[in-house]
Amino acid sequence: MVTLRELLLIKGMTLDIYKKLVPFVVCLPQATPVNINTARKEVLMSLAPGIDSSTAETILRIRTTQPFQEPQMFLKHPLLQSR
User: Fold this and answer.
1) pLDDT-based confidence at 58, cuts 50/70/90?
2) Residues 19 and 37 placed together within one structural domain of the fold
3) Cβ(79)–Cβ(55) under 8 Å?
4) Range of the domain at 51
5) Burial class of residue 82, CB neighbours in 10 A (0-12, 13-18, 19+)
6) What's the pTM?
7) How far apart are CA 76 and CA 41, in angstroms?
8) What integer is the mean pLDDT of 7-27?
């Protein structure tokens, strides 16, 4: 995807749905890593099927006092291991 407006080409996409999605979607030229310590709840939920709203909220609280120093710390966190 080169521009966000390409989302409007998806069958079933409406302008209303598009407007709701736009704040959460970006177009990047290549794969770009997610910063777990700054990612919004919705982004955290998109990283793995086991991260539901409650888990994402818990991650947001944890990282305010204990930021993840590296991606492996996040991936190996007990919250994600139980999913």
Assistant:
1) very high
2) no
3) yes
4) 33-83
5) exposed
6) 0.64
7) 19
8) 92
